[in-house]
User: Which sequence fits this backbone?
């Protein structure tokens, strides 16, 4: 059976291909590099569960286990040859093939008449403010990152900025249509 791919498994495997490391360092790098914007590491345990799965699947192996003075024991992981091959296969698939995803926002839009027009306008106005703030933050991240990173390390931020800006533009138009009465419901 083929190992199950996920964004977090791909991230963990990518990190150990970069250099062998322990779980805590993986989590640190994901956050330091702002990869937590695209890979869900909100739950600390998720990295450890993913490591366990990658070990079971034979994609990574334990390189060393050591304890330094009063620090907890640290296990350092490295990729197997199969792990390196699988990572490349996952990357090609993830880059080439759009996959159906089911985010909450389109689902909420599908059932918009559950709330009143006024409630929809209020909620969408709040969403637009959040989206505009996020676009500004991504712009700042891109500007700052460009001062010390090659562009290849910023492409996911460029993508996020494009998607968030497109959503903001859509919400802006939808709000206009709701306010003008072009879209309405009883």
Assistant:
């Amino acid at each position: 059976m083929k190992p199950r791919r996920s964004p977090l498994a791909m991230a963990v495997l990518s990190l150990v291909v970069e250099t062998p490391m322990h779980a805590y360092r993986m989590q640190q790098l994901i956050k330091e590099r702002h990869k937590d914007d695209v890979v869900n590491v909100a739950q600390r345990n998720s990295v450890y569960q993913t490591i366990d799965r990658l070990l079971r699947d034979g994609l990574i192996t334990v390189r060393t286990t050591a304890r330094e003075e009063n620090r907890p024991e640290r296990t350092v992981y490295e990729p197997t040859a199969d792990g390196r091959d699988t990572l490349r296969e996952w990357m090609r698939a993830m880059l080439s093939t759009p996959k159906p995803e089911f985010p909450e926002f389109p689902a909420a839009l599908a059932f918009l008449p559950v709330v009143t027009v006024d409630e929809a306008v209020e909620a969408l106005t709040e969403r637009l403010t959040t989206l505009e703030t996020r676009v500004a933050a991504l712009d700042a991240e891109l500007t700052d990152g460009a001062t010390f990173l090659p562009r290849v390390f910023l492409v996911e931020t460029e993508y996020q900025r494009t998607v968030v800006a497109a959503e903001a533009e859509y919400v802006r138009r939808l709000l206009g249509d709701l306010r003008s009465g072009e879209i309405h419901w009883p």
